[in-house]
Amino acid sequence: MVNEKKQSDGVKMSEIHDVANENYTKLANEFAKAQQQNIQAISGLQQEYLESIKVSVKTTISVQKEIFLSNNSTYGIPNAATTHTDNVIKQSNEYTRDIIR
């Protein structure tokens, strides 16, 4: 009788291990699916963020150009600023090329 009880306990423990293994596998698979969805969602948010930054920069630059190029503008650029402006443009282009590399 003692031997039967030990054997019965062994079967129950084996069943517990099988169920635990099966449940862990299910959970791991569901977690992997959720991770993939999270990664896609984050990537989508990053794309939207980059697009909004592009629009913001484009709009800001457009407004600034409109203000400075307007004939009625009181914000004229002095002739002495030409050299400085050329240097800023050159440095900006170099900086952009370096980042891209």
Number of domains: 1
How much helical structure, as a percent, in the residues?
A: over 70%
Rg over CA atoms: 33 Å
Summed over residues and divided by their number, the pLDDT gives a mean of 85
**Major sheet details:** none
Overall body shape? rod-shaped
Report the structural category.
mainly alpha
Q: Which residues sit in consecutive blocks of at least 5 with pLDDT less than 50?
A: none
Overview of the structural elements:
The protein has two helices and no strands. The mean pLDDT is 85. The chain is 87% helix and 0% strand. It has one domain (2-100). It has 101 residues and is mainly alpha-helical. It starts with a helix and ends with a helix. The longest helix has 68 residues, at 2-69.
